[in-house]
C-alpha cells in the first residue's frame, strides 16, 4: 500500500461556486488539538463521471469545513490500462491543486471474469477489495469522520460497521433514480414478472407513473445478476448514515419528498438525504481556446445544437449515417462529438475515423454550419458558450447537470446505464427536455427523420421546445442559487457538521 503526498491546505478552489466557509461554525473548537484533524475517506469508482463527481463533492466539503476535516481517497486499481492512465492523470491534477487530499492506493485484486454485465462486475470487484479497504482505514493515522462510498460500493458498509465508522453513500445520479433504487426491494416483491411484461406503469413514489420501457438497463432483465445487484444496493442504501445526492432540492422536490417521508422504503428506515448538487467539476479555461470553442465563437447566439454522448457513447456506421442525414435535413448548425466503436478487448469508444463512419461528401456539404469532432471534447466549455442553444445527449447525469447549469435544453438519447430513466425524468418530471423516439429493441436506434424533428423542436420550432428552454433557464437560476448560499449549500453544511461530530 502506497501513501501519496499530503498537500498543504489551501482555500483556492478554482471555478467552484462560492461556498460559505463554515469552519467557524461546525462543531465548535477542534476536539483533537494534538492529533491530526479528522479525515473523510472517499471510495470512488474510477470512471470520470463517478470519480470526478465524488472528488469534487469532497473538495466542497473541505472548503465548507474550513480546515476541520481532511480528505483521504482510497484508489482501487482500475481493471484496464486505459482507465488506470486516466485515473492517474486525474490524481496528478488533484495533487498539483495543493488541497489537503491524501491518495491511498489499494493493492490490485484479480478482477472477476465470469460476469454478465458492468453493474455486476463493478459490485463484485468492489466487494473483493473489502479486506484492503478495512486495512487501509484501520491504518489511518488520524480520526476517521466517515467513509463516503460510491453507490456501487454498498458491500463496504460491512467494513464501516466492523470499524464502527459512520458510512455515507454518494449517489452520483439523481433523486428520481435514488427513489427507484430505494423502492426496488419492494417492487421486487410486488412485481413477479419482468417489468416489461407487467400491465400499466411502474409506481415509483415521487415520480409520474414510469413506463416499464423507461426503466434503467440493469433492471430490465430480472434473470441477470445486474438486477440482483441493483436490488441489493437499493436494500443496503437504507443502512447508511446518510445519502449524499448530486441534485438540488429545487430540481427534484417531489422525488426527494417521497424519499424523506419513507414512501420509497415502505415506511422503513430512511437515512438522512443531503442534496448538495449540482456538483460539477470545473477546470480553469486553457490559455489557448480549444478548436471547438474557436469554431463556436464564429456562430450566432443560441444557434448551435451540441451532440455529445458521454464517456461511453459511440456509433457504428449505420447509425452515424442516419444522424448525418438528420443533421443535413434539419438545416441547423451543429457541433457533433462522434466516437467510434471500442477496440477489441476495450470498453471505451475510440476516436472516430470520419472517412469510414460518415456518408461521402457530408463534411463538405455541411462545412459552413457544422463541425464533427472525432475525439474527447471540452463539453463544459462548449455548453458554457453563448452559441450553444440545445444539447442532444446520452443523458448521463453529469452531462445533464452541466447543461442545466448553463440553461441549455436537452434532447435525451439514452444509450446505457440509467439513461432511459433519466430521459423520462427530464421530459416528464422536470420539463427541461424534448422527447425523441429511441428504439430500445434496436440498440437505441434513432431514425434520421426523428432526430430532425426533435432538433427542430429543441431549437425553438415548437411550443414544447420553447417551454423546455424556459424551464432550463429556470433550472439554471435554481442550480446556481442552490449552491451559492441556497438549499444545496445548506445541505453541505449540515453534512459537514454531521461528519465532524461523527468522527471516531
Ligand atoms: N465529457 C467531456 N467530453 C466528451 C464526453 C464527455 O468532457 O467528449 C464529460 C462530460 O462533460 C461529463 C462526463 O464526461 O462531465 C460524462 O459524464 P456523464 O455522467 O454525463 O456520462 P457517463 O460518461 O458517466 O456515461
Automatic annotation (TrEMBL):
Asked whether the keyword Glycosyltransferase is assigned, the reply is yes
The protein's GO terms of the molecular function aspect are:
UDP-glucosyltransferase activity
InterPro entries xrefs: UDP-glycosyltransf_plant, UDP_glucos_trans, UDP_glycos_trans_CS
**Keywords assigned by UniProt?**
Glycosyltransferase, Nucleus, Transferase
> What pathway, per the record?
Pigment biosynthesis; anthocyanin biosynthesis
Per the UniProt record, one Pfam family is UDPGT
EC assignment: the record states: 2.4.1.-
Q: What is its main location?
A: nucleus
Annotated Gene Ontology cellular components are: nucleus
Reactions catalysed: malvidin + UDP-alpha-D-galactose = malvidin 3-O-beta-D-galactoside + UDP + H(+)
Enumerate the subcellular locations listed in this protein's record, separating them with semicolons: Nucleus
- Coiled-coil annotation reads none
PANTHER family from the UniProt entry: GLYCOSYLTRANSFERASE
Record function comment? UDP-glycosyltransferase which uses UDP-galactose and malvidin as substrates to catalyze the biosynthesis of malvidin 3-O-galactoside, an anthocyanin conferring purple pigmentation.
Q: What family is this protein classified in?
A: Belongs to the UDP-glycosyltransferase family.
This protein's name = Glycosyltransferase
User: Source species, please?
Assistant: Panicum virgatum (Blackwell switchgrass)
The top of its lineage is:
Eukaryota, Viridiplantae, Streptophyta, Embryophyta, Tracheophyta
Amino acid at each position: 500500500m502506497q501513501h501519496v503526498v499530503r498537500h498543504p491546505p489551501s482555500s483556492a478552489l478554482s471555478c467552484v461556486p462560492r461556498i460559505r466557509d463554515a469552519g467557524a461554525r461546525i462543531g465548535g473548537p477542534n476536539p483533537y488539538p494534538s492529533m491530526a484533524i479528522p479525515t473523510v475517506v472517499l471510495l470512488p469508482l474510477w470512471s470520470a463521471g463517478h470519480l470526478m463527481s465524488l472528488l469534487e463533492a469532497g473538495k466542497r466539503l473541505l472548503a465548507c469545513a474550513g480546515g476541520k476535516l481532511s480528505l483521504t481517497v482510497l484508489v482501487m486499481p482500475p481493471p484496464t490500462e486505459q482507465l488506470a492512465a486516466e485515473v492517474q492523470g486525474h490524481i496528478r491534477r488533484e495533487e498539483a491543486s495543493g488541497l489537503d487530499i491524501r491518495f491511498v492506493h489499494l493493492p490490485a485484486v484479480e478482477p472477476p471474469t465470469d460476469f454478465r454485465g458492468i453493474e455486476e462486475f463493478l459490485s463484485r470487484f468492489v466487494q473483493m477489495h473489502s479486506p484492503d479497504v478495512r486495512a487501509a482505514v484501520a491504518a489511518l493515522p488520524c480520526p476517521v469522520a466517515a467513509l463516503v462510498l460510491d453507490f456501487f460500493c454498498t458491500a463496504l458498509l460491512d467494513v464501516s460497521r466492523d470499524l464502527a465508522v459512520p458510512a455515507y453513500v454518494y449517489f452520483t445520479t439523481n433523486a428520481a433514480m435514488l427513489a427507484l433504487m430505494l423502492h426496488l426491494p419492494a417492487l421486487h416483491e410486488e412485481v413477479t414478472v419482468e417489468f416489461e411484461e407487467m400491465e400499466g406503469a411502474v409506481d415509483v413514489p415521487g415520480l409520474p407513473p414510469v413506463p416499464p420501457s423507461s426503466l434503467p438497463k440493469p433492471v430490465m432483465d430480472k434473470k441477470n445478476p445486474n438486477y440482483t445487484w441493483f436490488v441489493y444496493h437499493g436494500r443496503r442504501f437504507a443502512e447508511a448514515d446518510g445519502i449524499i445526492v448530486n441534485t438540488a432540492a429545487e430540481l427534484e422536490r417531489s422525488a426527494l419528498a417521497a424519499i424523506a417521508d419513507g414512501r420509497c422504503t415502505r415506511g422503513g428506515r430512511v437515512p438522512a438525504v443531503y442534496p448538495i448538487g449540482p456538483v460539477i467539476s470545473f477546470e480553469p479555461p486553457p490559455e489557448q481556446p480549444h478548436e471547438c470553442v474557436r469554431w463556436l465563437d464564429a456562430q450566432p447566439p443560441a444557434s448551435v445544437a451540441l451532440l455529445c454522448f458521454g464517456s461511453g457513447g459511440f456509433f457504428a456506421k449505420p447509425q452515424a449515417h442516419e444522424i448525418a442525414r438528420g443533421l443535413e435535413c434539419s438545416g441547423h448548425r451543429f457541433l457533433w462529438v462522434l466516437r467510434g466503436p471500442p477496440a477489441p478487448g476495450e470498453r471505451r469508444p475510440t476516436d472516430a475515423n470520419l472517412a469510414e463512419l460518415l456518408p461521402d461528401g457530408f463534411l463538405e456539404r455541411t462545412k459552413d454550419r457544422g463541425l464533427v469532432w472525432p475525439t474527447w471534447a471540452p463539453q463544459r466549455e462548449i455548453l458554457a458558450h453563448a452559441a450553444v442553444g440545445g444539447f442532444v445527449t446520452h443523458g448521463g447525469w453529469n452531462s445533464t447537470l452541466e447543461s442545466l447549469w448553463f440553461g441549455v435544453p436537452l434532447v435525451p438519447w439514452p444509450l446505457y446505464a440509467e439513461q432511459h430513466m433519466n430521459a423520462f425524468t427530464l421530459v416528464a418530471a422536470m420539463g427541461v427536455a424534448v422527447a425523441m423516439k429511441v428504439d430500445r429493441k434496436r440498440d437505441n436506434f434513432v431514425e434520421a427523420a426523428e432526430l430532425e424533428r426533435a432538433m427542430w423542436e429543441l431549437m425553438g420550432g415548437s411550443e414544447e421546445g420553447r417551454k423546455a428552454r424556459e424551464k432550463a433557464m429556470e433550472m439554471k437560476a435554481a442550480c446556481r442559487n442552490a449552491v451559492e448560499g441556497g438549499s444545496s449549500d445548506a445541505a453541505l453544511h449540515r453534512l459537514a457538521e454531521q461528519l465532524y461530530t461523527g468522527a471516531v
